[in-house]
């Protein structure tokens, strides 16, 4: 029941309250009985007075008849005066048959009965009319005697009796109350006060040394029973106190033992209610995950994760909890700090109360982030090993193909040159053969240089020579190197340069290698009749080199790995996969080496755009170009 908002009533004595109730009942009963008796007496007295008035009136009937017969006014006056001697008669009228009044008299208002009540009590009036037949009239009515009688006398007597009743009731009640108060104090209040004094002196914290009441001291069995119950209660309290102390000590030791284990262990304990809200976590939870308990209390396990709780594993956990079954090693990610996610593993089992009602879950939890990271690193290492194996296989296949073609050409044309009939051939044919041998050798040298370059960059052995490089001369040189390749496919080369662009301080060889690789790739993967565009933008802090083509493009899923070594971008079935696949890898590595960035944007069938951002002044340019150092891998 909720507590009442009303102010508590003041305490009162049992004797006083009992006396008050008895007085109230006694006064009420006395008044009711007294008033009832007086009222009955009133009605009896009123009937008696009216009957007496009628008898008196009849006593004057003959005299009044003679006064009517003789027309004797004096005798009529005697009749009226005689009737007025009776106080209950208030009016007398003596008249003949014609209505002539021989005698009439009416009592004054002040001459009537009075009483002590402050208000008037209505009284009844009865009219008595007697026919007057004088002797010798043959019973003929000669006149009338009219008398009006009232019950005021009965009212006065009733009021006086009522006053006596009230006084007697009040006096009797007062005497009765005093006697009752003394009796209740002697036989009720005093024993109860003695019991109360005993109970007030009891010390629940030390029941053994508390004074106990002696039941034989009390005369009445009710108080003796209360005293016996008090003694029995204190003895039970003493026994329970001993058990409580033993239980408390054992509970303290158990809690201390559990607390020590919980603080030492990296795992933690947790508990949830029947709705799944967490209600308890051990201190290791805060120590291990660096997360306050208030951040998880009241929340379900699913509300603490950063994972998608609609996934199958969360549905399975919800089904297990719905069926009140035990679960083990359920792993999920939890955000312990902004941007910091850890993986935890929890075990749980349902628990019930004494009635078998499900209360919630209890279990343990552990931080398995390191275990997850180790497994993840192991998987990544395995993937890298598998990727390295695939890369090695691809590299061997590519190198075999790339070297076999020029070697076949070199061997074939050199064999022709060793034949006498070929030696005697025309000079033009010999020139063609030697040119083919030279181009095949140059191609093989380029392959070897690419491999050496990427190896030197990855090993950190690439030596950079910083100098001021003119943008116009750099672009002209690079375009001239790919004009023949572009012309063979009727590809249009376009440039867009910032007017008056200043020099860039960087490694010229690396710049040429970056642009030549990008232009060569763009021409290689652009179909005949396409366009390759080279643009350079100058900003206050950097140069932006951008090579765009409208070639075959690169599928979106290949973009994240397109710059990996030995990766080919062409997915078009009609475009040959020429080269080692090291071009974009060299470009990206050199861009990073020059403190720049590498970006690629492409879509299959729509072309590719590669953006290189390089700082305007990577290093201090030497005053004399003669100070350049030779770069080698």
From TrEMBL:
This is histidine kinase. The keyword Transmembrane helix applies. Pfam families: HATPase_c, HisKA, PAS. One of its GO terms (biological process) is regulation of DNA-templated transcription. It is an enzyme of class 2 (transferase). Keywords: Kinase, Membrane, Phosphoprotein, Transferase, Transmembrane, Transmembrane helix. One of its GO terms (cellular component) is plasma membrane. It comes from the Bacteria. The keyword Electron transport does not apply. The chain crosses the membrane at residues 21-40, 162-183. Residues 328-380 form the PAC domain. Residues 398-618 form the Histidine kinase domain. It catalyses: ATP + protein L-histidine = ADP + protein N-phospho-L-histidine. Its EC number is 2.7.13.3.
């Amino acid at each position: 029941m909720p507590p009442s908002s009303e102010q508590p009533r003041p305490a009162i004595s049992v004797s006083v309250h009992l006396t008050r109730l008895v007085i109230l009942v006694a006064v009420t009963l006395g008044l009711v009985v007294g008033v009832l008796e007086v009222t009955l007496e009133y009605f009896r007295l009123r009937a008696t007075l009216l009957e007496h008035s009628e008898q008196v009136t009849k006593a004057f009937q003959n005299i009044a008849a003679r006064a009517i017969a003789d027309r004797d006014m004096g005798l009529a006056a005697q009749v009226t005066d005689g009737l007025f001697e009776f106080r209950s008669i208030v009016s007398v009228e003596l008249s003949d048959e014609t209505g002539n009044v021989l005698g009439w008299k009416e009592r004054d208002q002040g001459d009537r009965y009075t009483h002590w009540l402050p208000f008037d009590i209505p009284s009844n009036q009865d009219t008595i009319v007697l026919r007057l037949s004088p002797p010798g009239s043959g019973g003929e009515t000669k006149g009338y005697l009219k008398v009006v009688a009232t019950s005021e006398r009965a009212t006065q007597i009733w009021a006086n009796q009522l006053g006596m009743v009230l006084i007697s009731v009040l006096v009797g009640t007062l005497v009765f109350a005093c006697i009752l108060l003394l009796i209740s104090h002697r036989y009720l209040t005093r024993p109860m006060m003695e019991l109360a004094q005993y109970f007030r002196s009891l010390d629940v914290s030390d029941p053994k040394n508390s004074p106990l009441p002696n039941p034989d001291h009390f005369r009445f069995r009710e108080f003796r029973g209360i005293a016996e119950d008090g003694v029995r209660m204190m003895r039970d309290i003493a026994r329970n106190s001993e058990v409580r102390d033993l239980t408390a000590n054992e509970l303290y030791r158990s809690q201390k033992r559990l607390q020590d284990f919980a603080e030492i262990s990296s795992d933690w304990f947790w508990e949830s209610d029947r709705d799944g809200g967490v209600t308890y976590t051990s201190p290791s939870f805060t120590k291990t995950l660096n997360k306050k308990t208030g951040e998880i209390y009241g929340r379900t396990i699913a509300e603490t994760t950063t994972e998608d709780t609609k996934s199958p594993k969360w549905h399975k956990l919800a089904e297990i909890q719905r069926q009140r079954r035990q679960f083990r090693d359920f792993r999920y990610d939890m955000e312990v700090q902004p941007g910091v996610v850890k993986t935890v593993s929890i075990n749980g089992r349902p628990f019930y109360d004494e009635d078998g009602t499900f209360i919630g879950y209890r279990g343990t939890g552990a931080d398995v982030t390191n275990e997850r990271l180790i497994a993840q690193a192991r998987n990544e290492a395995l993937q890298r090993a598998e990727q390295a194996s695939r890369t090695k296989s691809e590299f061997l296949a590519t190198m075999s193909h790339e070297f076999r073609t020029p070697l076949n050409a070199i061997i074939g044309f050199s064999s022709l040159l060793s034949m006498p009939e070929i030696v005697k051939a025309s000079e033009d044919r010999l020139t063609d053969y030697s040119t083919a041998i030279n181009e095949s050798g140059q191609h093989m040298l380029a392959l070897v240089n690419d491999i050496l370059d990427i190896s030197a960059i990855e090993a950190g052995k690439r030596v950079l020579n910083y100098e001021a490089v003119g943008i116009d001369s750099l672009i002209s040189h690079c375009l001239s190197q790919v004009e023949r390749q572009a012309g063979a496919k009727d590809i249009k080369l376009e440039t867009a340069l910032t007017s008056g662009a200043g020099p860039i301080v960087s490694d010229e060889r690396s710049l040429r290698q970056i642009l030549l690789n990008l232009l060569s790739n763009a021409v290689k993967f652009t179909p005949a009749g396409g366009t390759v565009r080279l643009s350079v933008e100058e900003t206050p802090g950097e140069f932006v080199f951008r090579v765009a083509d409208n070639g075959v493009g690169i599928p979106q899923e290949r973009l994240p790995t397109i710059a990996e070594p030995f990766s080919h971008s062409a997915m078009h079935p009609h475009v040959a996969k020429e080269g080692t696949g090291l071009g974009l890898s060299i470009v990206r590595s050199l861009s990073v080496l020059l403190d720049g960035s590498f970006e690629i944007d492409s879509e299959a069938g729509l072309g590719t755009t590669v953006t290189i951002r390089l700082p305007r002044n990577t290093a201090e340019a030497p005053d004399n170009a003669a100070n350049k150092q030779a770069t080698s891998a």
